[in-house]
Protein: Enoyl-CoA hydratase/isomerase family protein
Amino acid sequence: MTDAIGYERIGDIAVLKAQNPPVNALGYDVRVGLMEGIARAEDEGAKAVLIYGEGNTYFAGADIREFGQPPKSPGLPEVCDRIEASPLLVVSSMHGTALGGGLEVALSTHYRIAVPTARVGLPEVLLGILPGAGGTQRLPRVAGVEAALDLITTGRHIRADEALKLGIIDRIEDGAPREIGLAYTKELLDQNAPRRPVSEMEAPEPVDFDAVHDSVLKKGRGQISPATAVRAVQAATELPFAEGMKRERELFMELMNTDQRQGLIHAFFSERAVSKLPELKGVEPRRLAAIGVIGGGTMGAGIATAALLSGLTVTLLEMSPEAAEAAKGRIKGNLQGALKRGKIDQANFETLTEKSLTLATDYDALKDADLVIEAVFEEMDVKKKVFTQLDAVCKPGAVLATNTSYLDVNEIAAMTKRPQDVIGLHFFSPAHVMKLLEVVVADETAPDVVATGFALGKRLGKISVRAGVCDGFIGNRILSTYRTAADHMILDGASPYQIDKALEDFGFAMGPFAVADLAGLDIGWAVRKRKRAEGLDPRARDSAYADKLCEDGHFGQKTGKGYYDYAAGPRSRVPNPDVMPLIEAERAEQGITPREFTDEEIVRRYMAAMVNESAKVVGEGIARRPLDVDMTLLFGYGFPRYRGGPLKWADLEGLPGLLDDIRSWAKEDPYFWEPAPLLEKLVAEGRTFDDLNKEAAA
Structure:
């Protein structure tokens, strides 16, 4: 027996204990141990086998350390088949989580008991694959096709009570997994309960699988693993079990060889690596218990909501009592959403809004805050005044944070006598929902202040990315460039609506012009005016048609019109008929003869601009690693997760071809399409962006 599986004999019951911390992942040693344990129990004349997990969980899933490695026998399908085929009665006792392969092991046992807090699920589609050890064949037999399709195509986890209703587990019992498992197994033996292999159950009734497949594919915006999983479940209804298993394996291997799987695996590992910075190793963050938020608009209220939900006390500062009460109303509205979703109960709601939240109109109220975040209007003069006052009232060691989207954090920090305490914390709206947090490190920001920014992000449940100081940091700087590429295509002949559709078909949640309407066209207008005031490079192409929309009071969804008309509601957008005449007039004024663009060309130019600017951001050190860019775009800008991020996409597409395209377009517009030095270097050396990620991790 391997050390990963413990073996003991209790009367007629052989007990197999998973002891592979921290999550009893189904690595090679665990798989071997399960095979050997079943064989030993049979050889010793046991009548039943109990399988449970030591520590915090049953088998939580595959061993991520084996991802990308050559498979080692026995594979999990072989293990599951061996468990199910045992002539002994095999029981699983589950606690913690049984996810992916963990649930597949449980389904290969004959009976399943769980503690009330246990959770189960098959999340493989989130990694670009499907359950490959019988999950698509066994789950429909115990839970029915509709429930199995829901769980497998969404990857969602369910609680023990729902799993019991669906027939995935047979009993819920409170107690230690070993004790409740032994009691249940003894009861089954006393009742002379029969073996109950799921593979021998009747095939479930089919549904309209073609319709389900098409619906799932549409919902996934092009992600293929959920739709492919539908076909695997279909096999469970149409084929004998052994043939269904073969079909599952064929579809599993098809997905293993896709770019989408590579993209999702990259996203999985990068999400875990992004906040692990060598510079913070051994650096303790400062105390975080009470925070201040300045400004109670949509952003400030969202930040305050996120902080309250994480257990922090919040003092919210506004200009007047009326504005403060309005901010409280926004926070209450946000928390009502958490109440409806069951994240908090009514008592929590009352505590958060009446005890944990304090309203103020005087900066002195912030004197005891451990960290203060300003979320005021995006104007440098306004922010400088705020920081001058914070410097005067905040206690020594308090972290002073700006939520600016574009502005120079060094210039803001210079307004204080403690620039080492100043940092940028760029939240994305709505801040209590959006996962991304850019931690913007200024020239003099102290290491423990950076650590505090990441500690806050972790506490708030954010994906925190380190960014350097430049106009727009990582995300908005890149956004500005790829949005400019879209604007250039508009001038040259494409329409906003063709561009949006092409990019939504590519997998973006929304196209750039629909996003602009959602964010508010006045935001982009303010940025354009600021940049023009600072002086545009004479080589830069510019246009004014979007300004005219704003001048007419059309700011997007909040005013009912922007690039689209929202008279029928935000989900029923139709092109605004005023837009194309403005664009055509702009083309005529600039002497441009419009040409046609294919959807493929739109995507290629848009993505090439994104990749080229991303390479500049990494090359300049604004982002430390390519994966920092990828996570920023995934979690803040609607980039399709199954493509891994723009720089993972670039690696998969091929950097030489992208550079060739950029150089060809540079002949027409050398200013905009200037190739990134890092991109040129990587191509010359035959390397990829992922090589840089690996170097950073070494």
Observations:
- The chain is about 50% helix and 10% strand.
- The domain at 5-260 is CATH 3.90.226.10 (2-enoyl-CoA Hydratase; Chain A, domain 1).
